[in-house]
Specification:
Low-confidence stretches of chain B: 305-312
Order of helices and strands of chain A: HHHHHHHHHHHHHHH
Largest sheet of chain B: 2 strands, antiparallel
Strand content of chain A: under 5%
CATH topology of the largest domain in chain B: MetI-like fold
CATH class of the largest domain in chain B: Mainly Alpha
Low-confidence stretches of chain A: none
CATH architecture of the largest domain in chain B: Orthogonal Bundle
Number of domains of chain B: 2
Helix content of chain B: 55-70%
Structural class of chain B: mainly alpha
CATH architecture of the largest domain in chain A: Orthogonal Bundle
Oligomer: heterodimer
Largest sheet of chain A: none
Distance between the termini of chain A: 67 Å
Strand order of the largest sheet of chain B: 1-2
Chain lengths: 320, 312
C-alpha cells in the first residue's frame, strides 16, 4: 500500500514538472484560435498601414505603384507648396468651429434642453431621436439632403425661403463652402455630445437639484452651479475625442464640396486623399497623411496619459 | 429632468413648499416656451430635410420640401426597369442591392465571429500583456482609420497579386473591403463583447470545465448561448455599418458590376444633381430602408445604451 502511494506520488510529481514546462506552449494553442483572427486583422489593417504610410511618405510612388525612395523630397515639396498653408488654415478653422459650436456646444445645449428643461420624458426623447437621425443615415443620403437644402437654383430649400422674402437666390456651396462643411458635419457631430451629456445629466443625483430648488435656486442657477461643474469630465472627453475625429474626417466634405471650389474647403485629411487618389501620386499623399497619423498617435497618447485607461471607459460618469 | 420620488408639484400641493410667487412662475413659463421654440427652431432643418426625402420620392416636384406638386410613382421606376446614368446604363438595381447585402452581411459575420472569440479571450484569459492589449484595443478605436486609406490601398493591391485569393480579396472586390471594414469595427465590438462576457458568473463556466470541456467547447456550448442578445446587437450594428459604408467602397471598387447602393446613389447624385430630385430621393430612400427600419424600431433602446457601449 505504502509503496503504491510512493509510486503514484512520483508519477504525479513528474507529470507536474512536464506539465509546467509545456504550459506556455499549450497556452498558446489554447489562446490562438481566440485571439488569432483579431490580431491578424488588426495587424494587417492598423499596424502595417501605419508603418507603410511612414514608408510611403518617403517614396515618390505614383500610378505605377513602384517603390522609389526620394528621401525628404515630399516633405520639402509640402513646405514650399502655397496651397499647404491654406489647407492647414482651413483644417484648423473647420475643426475648431465644428467642435466648439456644434459637437460640444450644440451637443451640450441639446442635452441640457432635452433632459433638464423639458419636463416630459417623451418630448425630450423625441428631440434626441430627431438629432440621432443624421448619424444613422448613410453618408451619401445625408449629403443628398444637404445638397437639396443648399441647392443654388430655385429648387433649393433655403433659396425657396429667400424667394418668399424677395431675396436673390444664392449659390451657397460656392459662396461659403467652409460654413457649409461646418454646418453639415456639425449637425451630425452634435449627436455624439448630446448622447454623452444626456447620460451624464441623467446621472446627477436628483437630491442635489431638489435641495437647490428648495433653497430657491432658479433653473439657470442650477445649470450654472450644479450641472456644468459636474459635466466637466464628459465635456473634456468629448472635446478631445471629437477634435481627433474631426481632424481626420472628410467623408461628408468629399460628398458635398469635394474640397471645392478650388480648394476653398479642402482640409488636411481630404488633401491626402486627393493627392493619392485624384492626382495619383501616392507618395505625396502618404506624406500628407503621415503628418496626420503622427498627430493622431500623439493625441491618442495624450488622451491615454491624461485620462488614464479607466476614465476613458466611462465618459459619462459623474464623480460626485 | 430625472423623476424623483416626490415632485415639486406634489409638495406644492401639500403646501410644504410654498408656491413660487406669480412673477417667477410667469418667468418660468416664458423660459419653458423659449426652450421649446429654440428646440423646434434648431431641429427644423433636420425635420424638413427628412420630410422632403419621403415626399419628394413620390412627387414630381415639391414646394418648401413638404408640399408635393404632382404625385407619381415614376420616381421608383428603377425598381422594375432599366436606368441610365450619364453614359452608363444599369439594367437593374437588384444586382447592386445584392452586392450591398453581401457586403453588409460579410462585415456582420466577420465582426461577430472575430469579436466573440477575442472578447472572450480579453475577458477570461490571463496572459502577459493582457492589459496592454486591452488598452490598445480602445486606442485603436479612437485612431482614425481613414488616414490609413492610402496604405490600405497598397495592401489590397498586394493581396490582389497573390495567386489564388487575390481576385477574391484584393482590390476592386467586395470581399477585400469587407476585410477592411470588419478590421476597423472589430476593436470596438470586441470591447463590447468583453463587457458581456464579464457579466457572466464564473460558476457556469467552471461547471463546464469540471465536466471536461476544453476552452473552446466551453465557449461554444455554454457561454455563447448566454450572451446571444448581446451578439445579436453587435450583429445588427455591424450589418448597418456595412450597409452605410461609402468611403472605402468608393476608393477601392472601380467596376460598376461590383458597386453597392452607396456608390450607386453617389453616381446618381453626380449625374442628376439639381435636376431630377424625384429619382434621387426615391433611390436614396430605397437605399436607406434598413437603417430607417432599425431607427424606427429601436428609438428608445438606442438612447439608453449610448455609443461605445457606455450604459446611459
Amino acid at each position: 500500500m505504502k509503496d503504491q502511494a510512493i509510486a503514484v506520488k512520483g508519477l504525479v510529481r513528474e507529470e507536474t514538472r512536464l506539465f509546467h514546462l509545456t504550459k506556455a506552449f499549450r497556452d498558446f494553442f489554447s489562446y490562438a484560435p481566440f485571439l488569432g483572427p483579431f490580431l491578424c486583422l488588426v495587424v494587417l489593417f492598423f499596424f502595417i498601414p501605419v508603418i507603410l504610410t511612414t514608408g510611403l511618405a518617403f517614396t515618390g510612388m505614383d500610378s505605377k505603384l513602384e517603390w522609389d525612395f526620394v528621401g525628404l523630397q515630399n516633405f520639402r515639396k509640402l513646405l514650399i507648396d502655397p496651397l499647404v498653408p491654406k489647407i492647414a488654415k482651413n483644417t484648423i478653422i473647420y475643426v475648431f468651429f465644428t467642435c466648439l459650436f456644434f459637437n460640444v456646444g450644440l451637443g451640450f445645449i441639446l442635452a441640457l434642453l432635452t433632459t433638464y428643461y423639458v419636463k416630459r420624458e417623451n418630448v425630450g426623447l423625441l428631440f434626441r431621436s430627431i438629432w440621432l437621425l443624421p448619424r444613422m443615415t448613410p453618408s451619401v443620403v445625408y449629403g443628398l439632403l444637404w445638397l437639396w437644402f443648399l441647392d443654388p437654383s430655385e429648387g433649393g430649400m433655403v433659396n425657396q425661403v429667400l424667394q418668399v422674402f424677395n431675396q436673390p437666390t444664392q449659390s451657397w456651396l460656392a459662396r461659403s463652402p467652409m460654413a457649409v462643411i461646418i454646418l453639415v458635419n456639425g449637425f451630425v457631430g452634435a449627436s455624439f455630445g448630446m448622447v454623452i451629456f444626456s447620460a451624464a445629466i441623467k446621472a446627477i443625483p436628483t437630491d442635489y437639484i431638489w435641495a437647490a430648488r428648495v433653497d430657491g435656486a432658479s433653473d439657470f442657477d442650477i445649470v450654472r452651479r450644479i450641472i456644468v461643474p459636474l459635466l466637466k469630465w464628459p465635456i473634456m472627453f468629448t472635446t478631445i475625442w471629437q477634435t481627433l475625429s474631426l481632424l481626420s474626417s472628410y467623408e461628408y466634405i468629399l460628398i458635398l464640396t469635394d474640397g471645392g471650389p478650388f480648394y476653398k474647403s479642402e482640409v488636411w485629411a481630404l488633401h491626402a486623399y486627393h493627392r493619392a487618389f485624384k492626382v495619383l501620386s501616392f507618395g505625396e499623399g502618404a506624406s500628407v497623411a503621415f503628418v496626420l497619423v503622427v498627430v493622431g498617435v500623439g493625441v491618442c497618447l495624450i488622451m491615454w496619459k491624461l485620462f488614464g485607461f479607466e476614465r476613458l471607459m466611462q465618459p459619462s460618469k459623474i464623480e460626485v | 429632468m430625472p423623476s424623483s420620488a416626490v415632485s415639486v408639484e406634489a409638495l406644492e400641493k401639500m403646501r410644504i413648499v410654498a408656491k413660487a410667487p406669480r412673477g417667477q412662475r410667469i418667468r418660468e413659463a416664458m423660459v419653458n416656451a423659449g426652450v421649446y421654440i429654440l428646440l423646434v427652431a434648431v431641429s427644423l432643418p433636420i425635420v424638413v430635410m427628412y420630410t422632403w426625402l419621403f415626399i419628394s420620392s413620390i412627387s414630381k416636384r415639391t414646394l418648401f420640401g413638404f408640399i408635393p406638386r404632382g404625385l407619381t410613382w415614376n420616381n421608383w421606376r428603377f425598381l422594375w426597369g432599366e436606368i441610365v446614368i450619364g453614359a452608363r446604363a444599369y439594367t437593374s438595381i437588384w444586382p447592386v442591392t445584392l452586392n450591398t447585402f453581401l457586403f453588409a452581411g460579410g462585415v456582420m459575420v466577420l465582426v461577430v465571429v472575430v469579436s466573440t472569440l477575442s472578447g472572450f479571450a480579453l475577458s477570461r484569459f490571463q496572459f502577459r500583456g493582457r492589459s496592454q492589449l486591452m488598452q490598445m484595443t480602445m486606442l485603436l478605436h479612437a485612431f482614425p482609420g481613414v488616414t490609413l486609406l492610402i496604405a490600405i490601398f497598397y495592401i489590397l493591391y498586394t493581396i490582389s497579386k497573390v495567386p489564388l485569393i487575390g481576385p477574391i480579396f484584393g482590390l476592386n472586390s467586395i470581399w477585400g473591403v469587407v476585410l477592411v471594414k470588419a478590421a476597423l469595427e472589430i476593436p470596438m465590438s470586441s470591447w463590447i463583447v468583453k463587457g458581456f462576457f464579464d457579466d457572466i458568473p464564473w460558476d457556469i463556466e467552471w461547471a463546464a470545465y469540471v465536466d471536461g470541456c476544453s476552452r473552446f467547447q466551453a465557449w461554444r456550448k455554454v457561454i455563447l448561448p448566454v450572451v446571444r442578445p448581446g451578439i445579436a446587437a453587435i450583429a445588427i450594428f455591424s450589418f448597418l455599418a456595412g450597409w452605410s459604408e461609402f468611403l472605402y467602397l468608393f476608393t477601392f471598387i472601380f467596376d460598376q458590376k461590383n458597386y453597392t447602393l452607396s456608390l450607386f446613389v453617389k453616381q446618381a447624385i453626380g449625374d442628376f444633381k439639381f435636376v431630377d430630385y424625384g429619382l434621387l430621393t426615391a433611390s436614396a430612400l430605397f437605399y436607406m430602408i434598413p437603417p430607417l427600419l432599425f431607427f424606427i424600431f429601436t428609438q428608445k433602446a438606442l438612447l439608453r445604451v449610448s455609443f461605445g457601449g457606455i450604459k446611459g
